[in-house]
């Protein structure tokens, strides 16, 4: 393996260590927008980049229970839901074991299952996942914007509004990107979609 | 272009496909009869021929509205599936999943209305679902909304599978719509119209369903966390963006039957053309942006949205008239068409759609809407093109399929009685609504003033005729679909005929 | 075969996921830490630590010594220029509404500053008079040392963060403490009637 390949292979752990460094951690947790839309997605990316470290045999066993990537995507979705709760993002700042849970569960239960399952997911499964993700961005963005109370005790209301607007922007961007790709781009439909024709 | 073979092999329904299609159609016709009976009950209540307590009236209205929209979507999904599967690979599991989720959703809706006494109508406009004033609880409304979510997920699965199939053959949705041929180039004469129409529906209805998914969850959040208040205007915009596209998709799915079947009955080819592609491209855009015509009387709306609503309402008429209807008429001209049930229904549907659009365009004009908004003119226009347009398209396919079982288009004496009964009843019924609108009779009201009851009575009579005709059609079509095809009949393998 | 395995795995994930979500939200009731704090206190009344406080009159008093009566406690900082400046007025209204029980010595209002470096007795007294203190049954105080402040913030679940303008943003609320010195309920800071109801119900028992 070349030097470059080695660096790329270790990108996940390197990123994780970077994110765990106290100054980086505090910077990324200083606002709600940063924690939710930068830190946590980066931790998920760590998980995605951990895929090469899974031995092929283990992946094969997992995938026997993961047809179409469905159970893996479900797992990633629930992990995401838990880390979308204002409460958990709040506690991560106050309660050390919650912070530790974030730094382990987001890579291992969100990013990694996503990396294992996405290639196995067919067009319809990916479509459902992406549509739901887009809808969730809009719903959460709206919720953050209209909530009369501060949802997180550790963050300012103005920050909550910013996060809300950012989420709406993300939802809009995803919609446009998906629409563009489907209308005028190229989409590989085949994947691992097995034809089940009665 | 679509083949002229009456019952081609690639339309064969066998095994699981046959069962699924039968389920769709038999369920749909049964639901149509039931929903029509609810509608008749309401018209007779308004005519003061029946006494129904107002809270129950609004429950019936909620069921009729949601049930009709849902069933129309169900039956036209079957139409789209029937034809699209010839050109792209569709998976049976997606078609069946849509049916199952529809039924689950329908159960939730029925429970919320008849057990929970939900009466906030099919539009679930905020804050009505959470202001039951003791007639229904917010939890009941939540169940209703969950029903909608289930149905929406089912539709989404079907559309995603169809999109996958279309993209696999045509590369992307833009090419499936034929956009590359809009400004020149040789149009592939075999490019299926069914693919163009299906693509339009996939694009616009997916957006609508996304909007619906967002506003339904917003409404649910508000129900369980009342301190999170909805912006009523935003909610209304999202609801009508969702609803308008959902019901219009039924028309665009249904018309596939016309494109596919009419040439077979006229014996004249109906080739694809550039105007056709322009019409559908324009229609894709129009159906996405025309929804503000539902909010013309919401003066808090930004003015530019209302203007778009009117302009696009007018614009949307052109593709329909100039291309589909004109095209159908030119196909019909000097064709020597033989009038059998499928052909009658196909031509009726063109009339129903075209004529039904006129009151819609009139009402989509702000000046007129000031007077006609929320009068019975509105149900007049949508019953026109749903009853005499879309339902006729779907029934044309149903009759065509039962014809395929016996290798001959059905045209019995009972059919020849049922058709004029349906047509006359439909016309009387819808014109009664339109006339009531002219008299400014308000819509969605359980109790009518005595001076309004004349059109209610006329409408009731029309409705009775429609119900009788539909009852006949339902039995005729169900029996025809469930009958084993005769051995040697076209479109059927001997294995099927034997078992 | 993999269809069934996937179905089973998915059902397991679903069950585990819903359980985890339910556990993280106290049974889908508390999605924010503030709601969680209130639910927790309602279900498990919390013993409060003994902390030394210095009142606006300069006297030293132990929080524990205030047992034997119902306490309505709120956390303030006198420099507040935003909505929390109204907290004092809400307490003055409570002095009126609970005048009877206060006169009987059954109820006491206590405002504690979480900014003891700035809020000395003078500032606290000024805060009370600004808020139209009715003169009876309301003590304003500050913890005497940092350890005491931390114990109070932890015990009551108070979070105060910098608002970027030199002040604080905090989860203002009215904390209800029973005569046994346990935190039993937390009410909205701007709904004094809610806190009043809890106290009146408690007194009736």
Task: Describe the fold and architecture.
The complex is a heterotrimer of chains A (198), B (499) and C (205). Chain A is mainly α and 198 residues long. Chain A has ten helices and no strands. Chain A has helices spanning 3-9, 11-20, 22-28, 32-48, 56-64, 70-84, 86-94, 96-117, 123-146, 157-184. Chain B is mostly helical and 499 residues long. Chain B has helices spanning 15-46, 54-84, 92-114, 138-170, 173-177, 193-224, 232-266, 274-289, 303-332, 341-363, 366-372, 377-406, 413-438, 453-482, 494-498. In chain B, helix 1 packs antiparallel against helix 14 (453-482), helix 2 (54-84) runs antiparallel to helix 3 (92-114) and helix 4 packs antiparallel against helix 6. Chain B starts with 14 loop residues before the first helix and ends with a helix. Chain C starts with a helix and ends with a helix. An eight-stranded mixed β-sheet of chain C has the order 1-10-9-4-5-6-2-3. Chain C has a two-stranded antiparallel ribbon with strand order 7-8. Chain C has seven helices and ten strands. Chains in contact: A-B, A-C. At the A-B interface, helix 9 and helix 10 of A face helix 1, helix 3, helix 4 and helix 6 of B.
Concise account of the structure shown:
The complex is a heterotrimer of chains A (198), B (499) and C (205). Chain A is mainly alpha-helical. Chain A has helices at 3-9, 11-20, 22-28, 32-48, 56-64, 70-84, 86-94, 96-117, 123-146, 157-184.
Distance between the termini of chain C: 63 Å
Task: Give the helix level of chain B as a range of percent.
Answer: over 70%
Task: Tell me which CATH architecture of chain C applies here.
Answer: 3-Layer(aba) Sandwich
Strand content of chain C: 15-25%
Report the end-to-end length of chain B measured between terminal Cα atoms: 34 Å
How many distinct folded domains of chain B?
1
**Would you identify the CATH architecture of chain B?**
Up-down Bundle
Uncertain stretches of chain B: 487-499
The tally of strands of chain C reads 10
Tell me the major beta sheet of chain C: 8 strands, mixed
Order of helices and strands of chain C: HHEEEEHHEHEHEEEEH
Low-confidence stretches of chain C are none
CATH superfamily of chain C: Glutaredoxin
How many separate structural domains of chain C? Answer: 1
Mean pLDDT of chain B: 93
List how many beta strands of chain B DSSP finds: 0
Quick one: biggest sheet of chain B?
none
DSSP strand content of chain B? under 5%
Classify the fold: give the CATH topology of chain B: Cytochrome C Oxidase, Chain A
Mean pLDDT of chain C: 91
């Amino acid at each position: 393996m070349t030097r470059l390949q080695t660096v790329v292979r270790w990108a996940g752990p390197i990123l994780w260590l970077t994110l765990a460094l106290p100054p980086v951690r505090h910077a990324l947790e200083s606002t709600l927008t940063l924690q939710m839309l930068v830190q946590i997605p980066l931790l998920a990316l760590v998980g995605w980049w951990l895929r090469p470290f899974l031995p092929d045999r283990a992946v094969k066993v997992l995938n026997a229970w993961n047809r179409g990537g469905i159970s893996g995507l479900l797992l990633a979705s629930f992990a995401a839901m838990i880390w979308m709760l204002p409460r958990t993002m709040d506690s991560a700042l106050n309660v050390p074991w919650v912070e530790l849970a974030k730094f382990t569960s987001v890579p291992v239960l969100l990013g990694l299952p996503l990396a294992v399952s996405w290639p196995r997911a067919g067009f319809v499964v990916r479509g459902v996942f992406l549509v739901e993700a887009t809808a969730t961005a809009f719903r959460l963005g709206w919720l953050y914007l209209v909530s009369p109370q501060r949802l997180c005790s550790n963050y300012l209301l103005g920050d909550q509004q910013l996060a809300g607007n950012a989420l709406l922007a993300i939802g809009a961007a995803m919609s446009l990107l998906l629409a563009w790709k489907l209308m005028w781009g190229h989409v590989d439909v085949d994947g691992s979609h097995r034809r089940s024709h009665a | 272009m679509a083949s002229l073979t009456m019952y081609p092999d690639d339309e064969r329904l066998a095994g699981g496909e046959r069962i699924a299609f039968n389920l769709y159609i038999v369920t749909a016709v049964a639901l149509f009869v039931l929903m029509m009976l609810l509608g008749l009950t309401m018209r007779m209540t308004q005519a003061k021929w029946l006494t129904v307590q107002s809270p129950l009236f609004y429950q019936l209205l909620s069921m009729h509205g949601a049930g009709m929209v849902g069933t129309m979507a169900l039956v036209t999904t079957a139409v789209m599936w029937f034809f699209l599967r010839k050109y792209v690979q569709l998976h049976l599991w997606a078609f069946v999943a849509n049916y199952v989720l529809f039924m689950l959703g329908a159960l939730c809706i029925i429970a919320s209305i008849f057990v929970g006494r939900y009466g906030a109508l099919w539009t679930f406009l905020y804050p009505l679902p959470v202001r039951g004033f003791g007639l229904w609880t917010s939890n009941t409304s939540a169940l209703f909304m969950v029903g909608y979510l289930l149905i929406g997920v089912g539709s989404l699965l079907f559309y995603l599978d169809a999109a996958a199939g279309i993209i696999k053959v045509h590369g992307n949705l833009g090419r499936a719509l034929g956009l590359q041929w809009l400004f020149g180039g040789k149009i592939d004469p075999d490019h299926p119209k069914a693919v163009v129409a299906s693509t339009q529906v996939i694009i616009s209805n997916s957006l609508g369903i996304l909007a619906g998914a967002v506003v339904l969850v917003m409404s649910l959040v508000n129900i369980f966390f009342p301190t999170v208040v909805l912006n009523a205007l935003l909610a209304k915009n999202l609801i009508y963006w969702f609803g308008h596209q959902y019901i219009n998709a039924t028309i665009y799915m249904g018309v596939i039957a016309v494109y596919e079947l009419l040439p077979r009955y006229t014996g004249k080819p109906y080739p694809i053309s550039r105007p056709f592609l322009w019409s559908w491209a324009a229609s894709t855009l129009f159906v996405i942006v025309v929804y503000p015509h539902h909010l013309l009387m919401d003066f808090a709306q930004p003015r530019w949205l209302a203007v778009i609503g009117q302009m696009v309402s007018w614009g949307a008429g052109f593709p329909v008239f100039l291309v589909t209807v004109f095209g159908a008429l030119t196909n019909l001209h000097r064709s020597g068409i033989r009038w059998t049930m499928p052909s009658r229904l196909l031509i009726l549907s063109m009339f129903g759609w075209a004529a039904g659009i006129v009151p819609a365009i009139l009402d989509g004009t702000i000046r007129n809407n000031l007077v006609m908004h929320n009068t019975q003119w509105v149900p007049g226009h949508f019953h026109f093109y749903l009853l005499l347009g879309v339902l006729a398209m779907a029934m044309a396919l149903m009759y065509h399929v039962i014809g395929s079982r016996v290798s001959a288009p059905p045209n019995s004496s009972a059919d020849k009685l049922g058709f004029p009964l349906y047509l006359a009843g439909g016309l009387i019924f819808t014109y009664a609504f339109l006339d009531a609108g002219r008299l400014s009779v308000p819509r969605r009201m359980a109790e009518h003033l005595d001076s309004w009851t004349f059109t209610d009575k006329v409408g009731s009579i029309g409705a009775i005729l429609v119900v009788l005709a539909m009852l006949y059609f339902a039995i005729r079509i169900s029996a025809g679909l469930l009958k084993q095809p005769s051995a040697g009949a076209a479109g059927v393998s001997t294995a099927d005929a034997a078992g | 075969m993999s269809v069934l395995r996937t179905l089973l795995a998915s059902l397991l994930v679903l069950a585990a996921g819903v359980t985890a979500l339910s556990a993280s939200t106290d049974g889908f009731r508390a999605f924010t830490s503030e709601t969680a704090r209130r639910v927790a206190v309602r279900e498990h009344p919390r013993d409060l630590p003994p902390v030394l406080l210095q009142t606006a009159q300069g006297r030293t008093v132990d929080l524990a010594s205030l047992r034997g009566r119902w306490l309505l406690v709120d956390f303030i900082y006198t420099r507040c220029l935003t909505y929390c400046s109204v907290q004092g007025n809400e307490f003055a209204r409570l002095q009126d509404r609970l005048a009877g029980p206060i006169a009987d010595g059954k109820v006491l209002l206590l405002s504690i500053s979480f900014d003891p470096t700035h809020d000395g007795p003078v500032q606290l007294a000024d805060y009370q008079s600004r808020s139209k203190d009715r003169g009876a049954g309301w003590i304003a105080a500050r913890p005497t040392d940092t350890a005491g402040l931390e114990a109070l913030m932890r015990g009551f679940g108070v979070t105060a963060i910098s608002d970027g303008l030199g002040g604080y943003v905090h989860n203002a609320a009215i904390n209800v403490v029973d005569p046994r010195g346990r935190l039993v309920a937390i009410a909205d800071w701007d709904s004094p009637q809610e806190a009043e109801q809890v106290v009146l119900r408690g007194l009736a028992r």
